[in-house]
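Notes for week 9. Today we move from apo structures to complexes. The key idea is that a small molecule is not decoration. When we ask for a structure prediction with NAP present, the ligand SMILES becomes part of the input, just like the chain. The input block below holds both the sequence and the ligand string. Read it once before you look at the output, and try to guess where the molecule might sit.
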Amino acid sequence: MKQYNVAVVGATGLVGRKMTQVLEERNFPVKKLIPLASERSAGKEISFRGEKIKVQKLAPESFAGIEIALFSAGASVSREFAPIAAEAGAVAIDNSSAWRMDPEIPLVVPEVNRADIFKHHGIIANPNCSTIQMVVALKPLHDRYRIRRVVVSTYQSVTGAGQKGVDQLDEELGKKQGATKKFPHKIAFNCLPHIDVFFDDGYTKEEHKMTFETAKIMGDDSIKVTATCVRVPVFGGHSESVNIEFEKPYELKDVFAVLRKSPGLIVVDDPSNNVYPMPLDAYEKDEVFVGRIRRDDTAPNSLNMWVVSDNIRKGAATNAVQIAEELIKGRD
Ligand SMILES: NC(=O)c1ccc[n+]([C@@H]2O[C@H](COP(=O)([O-])OP(=O)(O)OC[C@H]3O[C@@H](n4cnc5c(N)ncnc54)[C@H](OP(=O)(O)O)[C@@H]3O)[C@@H](O)[C@H]2O)c1
């Protein structure tokens, strides 16, 4: 089997560390792994397959001989360096928001739009974490009943804000000292209806991402999504309350059957025994969990469900590695 030279840009961050771990867990055919980060972390070591590898400072020359470059170092780094990686002959799979809405760049969740991978010109974008887990659950339902409108409220883990988000909550819980503040308010014992920057329309950038990325990934601009994104003091994953209005009528038992046989999705739904998806259970898992599936009788053909996933895995690292796996498998 062919082996690939793989660079991980942002290898010391929450997502980058998980990418390296996921590459190893899934036996991705790595010939050589090059961990890259800023000057701050150059010389630190990361472990890969029992070997210690020194982190290098990211530079334009870093991509010589690299075939796949996984980026998770923020949008400005991706904007500058993903084209350099592509120019050097690598395929850049980018976790930041830099390229997601560029019409020339595929935005991919393999369970939803695998074929788009092969439209790339050197850069493939990995969607926002809260969007990824939602579309994995929406896609099979859209195929069957056609979605008109989605109203989603999120309950997002501090891990979604990177290492600094985790450090702030750890400090407020008395588990750490000297952390710099990441959120504009205390996060322990609190909920902040504020993720990323506010726009003039009153929505945040995170909420816009859920609206526009969903339409792009599903390849259907007619799907309307309105979102309220909330940061909660949780470490393990993102949760979402999702209300869907379909064009066609449905039988609840058929919705369960459709979701049960969908790739990447696990139905966890037995409320009489207190069984439903929770971030503590989703932590360190690669799947998306769906439960509390029930009819919404206040509108025609409408449904409520609760969707949970580990945002660092399926919402970021695992999805990026899955894109790389599909890329090397090639077209169907
Ligand atoms: N957390 C999530 O749930 C999630 C989900 C999807 C996508 N993402 C995206 O993934 C990216 C990283 O997120 P994260 O949560 O892993 O953040 P993080 O924990 O803060 O890690 C940031 C990483 O980027 C590196 N970096 C920062 N500035 C750099 C520069 N100028 N040159 C080279 N490397 C630089 C850091 O290296 P140093 O060690 O040298 O500082 C570190 O490795 C972001 O774009 C984020 O939007 C995150």
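The chain is about 30% helix and 25% strand.
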